[in-house]
Amino acid sequence: MKKRTLLLLIAPLFMSCASNQGELSEEPTTSHEETSEVSKPERPNQQINSINHRGWFEAPENTLSAYRESKDRGFEMVECDISFTKDGKPVLLHDDTIDRTSNGSGSVRDYNLDYLKSLDFGSWKDEKYKNESIPTLEEFASLCKELSLHPYIELKKGASGEEAVSIVETIDNVGLKGKVSYISYEVDLLTAIRNVDSKARLGLVCNNVFDSIIEKASSLKTDENEVFVDSYYSMLDSTGVNRCIESNIPLEVWTVDSEDAILKLDKYISGVTSNKLNAETVWNKATA
Predict the structure, then answer these.
(1) 212 SS3 class
(2) What is the pLDDT of residues 165-207, one digit of tens each?
(3) Half-sphere exposure of 134 (CA within 13 A, CB side)
């Protein structure tokens, strides 16, 4: 009888505990996957100019094949380097010599265009590009017009003011006036272009942005043009960025080949030159 009484007294207590445990276990729980959100990078306010450096990197640089592949890969802007031949023709070539990118050797300024056209500027990259010829500026500009590509035309050190003007004349004759950007380390060459085209878009190329760069870039401004600084991203620091911000000068960078690096760039930067990455595409993917 005592055992039965004891059991009757304990049973309600046990049932109460069990009931409380049931209530606790029925409280809604939220998994880590439901509460945590992957933080997305903060996108720049403006659209990013995405420039393919010397054309698509898997093709021989500064050739028409490389720029066709740039277009196929979704680029709308492409960069090229301009050198001059012995007979004064502007051609696409980065180096002072033709040794690295052709089966010839020597300075490009030592040869006439006809001889340079006989050389192979493709096989060094891949046999499928065998007999690719060195393009003239006119051929390159005509292709850009055909494919609706915006060219960034880099004038190399050693060019004269007269040669800079001849580049502008070639661009105008092709029908691309107002649809190109001229870039150079040499402020004198950009000044020569500004003097014949007050609306030309000009980019002063540099490593980091110092006060002297701001002064030179500011000297290129007219009431009608856009002037920007084009800095080497690996050497650019926050002080350089702030100099551009304080001077209200747009800032672009070269050459950035890492998605992570693109996403970490200062939000003031409005253009990215790359061998293989379209910065706008990178941002669209990261913020989708």
Answers:
(1) helix
(2) 999 999 999 999 999 999 999 999 999 999 999 999 999 999 9
(3) 31
